[in-house]
Every structure is written in structure tokens, then in C-alpha cells.
Amino acid sequence: MNDALLDFFHYLTVERGLSHNTIQSYKRDLNQYQSYLQEEAQISDWDHVSRTHIMKFMYALNDKGRSTATIARLLSSVRLYHQFLVREKVTSQDPSLHIETPKKERKLPKVLSSDEVDKLLSITPHDPLSSRNKAMLEMLYATGLRVSELVSLKMGDLHLSMGFVRCLGKGSKERIIPLGDMAKEAVEHYLDHGRSTLTKQKSTEELFVNHHGNRLTRQGFWKILKAVARDAGISKELTPHTLRHSFATHLLENGADLRAVQEMLGHADISTTQIYTQVSKTRLKDVYRSYHPRA
Asked: Which class is 114-291 in CATH?
């Protein structure tokens, strides 16, 4: 069983060309699946895996308190793996066929109001770190980048004169996103008055760096976001994705085309983007109930 699993990871790397992070996700899922089959079901051969074993694996995950989204993702990994085993003639049957994917709970993303965004972005850039922080937050809200995409930006991805930024998203898909005037000004100030001090004049391609002049991490960004929000008096719980959610919701509230927002966010499926239209409708209902005399 172990040999087949190693062959599958090699296939994902060489033939499918998937990213390191995606392959690591498959490894976590399938190592967990194989461990369950070997330890709980006492199975040592893929020919002996049945639909019942997969169903019991899913029930076990549910009993451990795993979310519907996590179980659905694991099942997707299991399906792809069994398809590979059949194609490579490791086994002749695919027990994952006809197993329904658990319906994901579509929770509405939490977003900031326009006033809260103004508070969060009201940083006065008085030193290199505050200049960097303002530039990062302005860029996130202006572009809807994922935090992993933000901290991966290189100097060559920035095209300020033309007003856009280039990024590589999930699956190494490139997208070009417009950069508004306020974000451009904040980034220009950071480049002129902050970055060279933080990098201590050493050569580095990273756009945003920490106080040691090295690439900023996602965890480092989260700490910065919490500190800035606290200083701005925002009590609402924020995550690194909050500004991305706010970017999409505010665009749609102001009449942006759904397909254009999908492209800027880098969503493969427009149904993922449509969740933000639900946020807009919910906010409209709240405003109506709050202010209409007969609500």
C-alpha cells in the first residue's frame, strides 16, 4: 500500500505539476486515510477496500468533530487516489464511486464596513514599519489578494506606472489586478521611505520584508493586522482574509460585475464568488430593518 501511495505523489508532482502546498495537502489526507484502513479496518491490500470502509472513515472523521468542508476535501482526495489506482491497474475496482459528497455549510464571510476600513487604513506612516504596514493593508483592500499572495510578491510584480500588480495564485495561475491611487501612493511612500531601511541596503526581490530585511510570513502579517486593528479601536474579530472579503463585498455593493470580481479574486468557479452577493443582500436587509419605519 505504501508503494502505491508514493507512486501517486510522484504522479502529482511530475505529471500533474501540482504545487508543493497542494501535494502536501494530498499527503496529509491520504496518509490519514491509509492509516485508518490499516489500523482500524486491518486492511493491507487496496483490492480489499470497499465502499463501506470509506463511509466508515468519513463517519470517524465526523465523530472527531471534523467540519463538513474538511470531510468533503478528504473524500475528494480519496476519489482521485482510487481513480489513479484503477488507471495504474493496482486494483480493478473503485470503491469511492457513487459516494455523495457532504454538502458544505456556506457560512457568510465576515466583512468590515466602509467606516471600519477607513479606521484600519488611517495609519500615519511615520517610520519604515508603519509605512510598510499601511502599504500592505492598502494593497490588500485595493486588490483582494490572499495574504499568501501578498507576502510572495516580488519587486518585479509591481507596475506602479501602469497601475497594476501581477500575482501568481493557486495552481500558479497568473492574474493582473488594478491598483487604486491610494494604494499606489502608500506603496510608493513605502518604497521611498521604508523598504531600503528595512532591507539595510541588501539585495532582495521580496516587496514586503520584516524588520530583519527578510520575507514577511503569513503569521507575521497576522500579528501586524491584529496590532493595527487594536490601535484603530476595531473590536471585530479579524482574520487575514477579512480585507479580501471586504474588497469583494464592497465592489459588488457598488455595482461591480460579478465576473470581473471573480477574475480579480482568482476564483476558478463563479459559485465561490457568488457568496459575496449573499453578504450584500444580508447587509441591505440589516439597513432596511434598522431604518425603515415599518420594517
From this structure: mainly alpha
CATH code 1.10.443.10 region(s) in the chain: 114-291
CATH architecture of 2-87: Orthogonal Bundle (1.10)
Residues acting as catalytic residues: 146, 170, 241, 244, 267, 276
The model's confidence at residue 99, banded by pLDDT at 50, 70 and 90, is confident
d(CA 77, CA 91): 17
**pLDDT-above-90 percentage for the chain:** 46
* pLDDT tens-digit series, residues 192-213: 998 999 998 788 899 999 998 8
Picking from 222, 283, 217, the residue whose alpha carbon sits closest to that of residue 248 is 283
